[in-house]
C-alpha cells in the first residue's frame, strides 16, 4: 500500500491523514511515477525514473525510438506489468506525449500517458 499521489501532490484523507492506493492502482501509480521522475533525481535511488525529459535534446527523427527505449528501461523493474506498445507524438507548441500500453499480471491492461515540455 502506498500514499495516493495526484498532480504532483499527496492526497489528504478526510481525517487529516493521507489516502492510500493498493493493488492495481498502486502498480499504475508506481509506473507513472517511474515515467514522470527524472532518472538520477533521487539521491538514494539513482536508477529510479526515466530519461524522457531529454527527448527534445535529440534529433527529431530519433525521438520516437528513444522514447520507446526509455519507457522499457524505466518500467523494467516493475515485474507485474509488461510494456506492449509505446506511442510518441509531438505538438507544434513544444510539447510531446508518450503513451505506454501495458499488460498487467492480473490479466488486465492499462495505458499511461506522460507529457513532456521541450
What is the compact description of this entry?
23% of the residues lie in helices and 31% in strands. By secondary structure, the chain is α+β, with helices and mostly antiparallel strands.
Give helix and strand order, one letter per element, not per position. EEEEHHEEE
Which term fits the overall shape? Answer: globular
Strand order of the largest sheet: 5-6-7
Radius of gyration: 15 Å
Description of the structure:
With 118 residues, this protein is α+β, with helices and mostly antiparallel strands. The chain contains two helices and seven strands, in the order E-E-E-E-H-H-E-E-E. The protein has one domain: Nuclear Transport Factor 2, Chain: A (Roll), CATH 3.10.450. The strands form three sheets. It has a three-stranded antiparallel beta sheet with strand order 5-6-7, with helices on one face. A hairpin with a 4-residue loop joins strand 6 and strand 7.
Features:
118 residues; alpha+beta; Nuclear Transport Factor 2, Chain: A; three-stranded antiparallel β-sheet; two-stranded antiparallel sheet
Map the helices and strands.
Layout: E1 2-3, E2 5-6, E3 9-10, E4 20-21, H1 23-36, H2 63-75, E5 81-90, E6 95-104, E7 109-117
Antiparallel strand pairs: 1-4, 2-3, 5-6, 6-7
Amino acid at each position: 500500500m502506498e500514499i495516493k499521489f495526484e498532480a504532483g501532490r499527496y492526497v489528504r484523507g478526510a481525517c487529516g491523514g493521507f489516502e492510500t492506493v493498493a493493488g492495481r492502482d498502486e502498480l499504475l501509480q508506481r509506473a507513472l511515477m517511474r515515467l514522470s521522475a527524472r532518472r538520477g533525481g533521487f539521491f538514494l535511488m539513482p536508477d529510479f525514473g526515466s530519461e524522457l525529459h531529454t527527448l527534445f535534446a535529440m534529433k527529431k527523427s530519433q525521438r520516437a525510438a528513444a522514447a520507446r527505449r526509455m519507457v522499457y528501461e524505466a518500467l523494467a523493474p516493475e515485474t507485474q506489468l509488461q510494456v506492449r506498445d509505446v506511442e510518441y507524438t509531438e505538438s507544434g507548441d513544444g510539447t510531446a506525449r508518450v503513451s505506454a500500453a501495458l499488460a498487467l499480471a492480473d490479466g488486465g491492461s492499462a495505458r499511461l500517458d506522460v507529457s513532456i515540455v521541450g
